[in-house]
Amino acid sequence: MKYIFVTGGVVSSLGKGLAAASIGTLLEHRNLKVTLQKFDPYLNVDPGTMSPFQHGEVYVLDDGAETDLDLGHYERFTNCVLTKFNNLTSGQVFENVIKRERRGGYLGKTVQFIPHVTDEIKKRLNDVTERNSDCDVIITEIGGTVGDIEGHLFLEALRQFSLEVGRENVCFIHVTLLPLIRAAGEIKTKPTQQSVAKLREIGIQPDIIICRTEHDLDEDNRRKIAMFCNVESKNVVAFRDVAHTIYECPLDLRTDKIDRLVVDRLGIDSPTPELEEWEEFVANIINPLHEVNVAVVGKYIELQDAYKSIYESLTHAGAAHKTKVNVVRVDSETVSADTAAGILGKVDGILIPGGFGDRGIEGMIETARYARENGIPFFGICLGMQVATIDYARNVCGLENANSTEFDKNSPHPVICLQEEQKGIKDMGATMRLGSCESIILAGTRAAEIYDNVDSIRERHRHRYEFNPDYRDQIQDAGLVISSVSADEGLVEIVELPSHPYFVAAQFHPEFRSRPTKPHPLFSSFVKAALDAKSAVPA
Ligand code: GLN
User: Fold this and answer.
1) Any idea where the domains of the chain sit in the sequence?
2) Is 397 in the active site?
3) Over the stretch 137-180, which tens digit does the pLDDT of each residue have?
4) Which of 16, 41, 177, 492 could link 150 by a cystine bridge, Cβ 3.0 to 4.6 Å?
5) Phi, psi (deg, nearest 5) at residue 135
């Protein structure tokens, strides 16, 4: 097995995750099998309990693990299917060490950061190696910035690990920033030099330095970085700000032949990558033939990263239709019966994403009503399906004050509620329906058409509340069709309105399964519906 470790220096938000994912893309196109993982030095056991304001989106894997959004990049940029073992946090490391200590597993020894905590980190590396024995390369991104106290143990573990598996099997890549001091008109290499010095202090000599820069990296600066950081100048790679889309990143990194440097360093023989399909996908994003405006109506709307996978899925679907999808971000708290037409009247499609807690819920219900009554293509995801159901119950079935028990415990018509067996469980996380499960698609429905008439699908879930089976018949009789139910318990998975141009809502999260060149069918059909709606309106 060969290993690539990606660290970051100078500042956070340098696109380390994208760099790691892009290297994955390039290596896969060299016919290598890769997997990626993330080490996060924070103390949460997983990001599942963190607010999106803290951490952006929680990305959910097939096995139900709630992980860092960088794992979303990994799955989108490569073909790897990740598991809970691909995201390790300090919280998990310490939890394991302390549990073992309590069991007497250290046989009376003093339990110490080195070797016991570092051993625990290396154990995970070995575990992941074993679980991915069919892979050629494991790429590991270390969260945080070199020099942070909390990342130190991870770096020490990597230093030890690289000696144990043989330094020739390991490639250390350090991602840094080259700031431009505008007044002086100069690009500065000093922060890079100092952050590499910090890494070398720990005993890690990077093999490749990736420099994030808004501008080109000239030969002088390349040589300077090479000399001060003790690498060859060809191993100093520029990572420019991409002009249009993050999917340009692998193409940009290829300019300085990063994939070549990596395979040479690791002694792997592999052909130069051909990326035609990827290039075509990027070209479709850069030069679209059409354009649609889609409102995403949610409560974390001001946050760039809160609905990351949804925005990416819209991009994938847009590219497939050569369509630029402009996202109009709408804070659901601003939507009411009075404002809906003003805010949503001109968009070509409306999407309500997932969410928790009651803030902004009434605005979402109003949004679903507006889309339903005005024939605007509508796509509800998770909470989006729940609010669409609440609207239907209230405004079509006449069930006054219908609600989800998440928002109104005393609702006379709890059309969305907890399942019996979930009640009474207090531990956050324990009651969640998480991960991939199978659902049956009902023949003859729009869902069947969208999914190409397959009998069943597997989609990822992350929610607590369900469509209340007691109201199924009443709501169905009033015209809302349940077109998919879970294979095991018959829980409602998709609802749709046949009388509407496009009104589809899913209890699961299709955004976690969309891939650049394989857009998710629900997103693809939604974008197509928005496009059709737009062309139906005379300009
Ligand atoms: N809050 C809702 C639930 O727990 C929806 C969750 C979501 O949208 N991810 O069921």
Assistant:
1) 2-280, 288-420+430-536
2) no
3) 999 999 999 999 999 999 999 999 999 999 999 999 999 999 99
4) 41
5) -90, 155
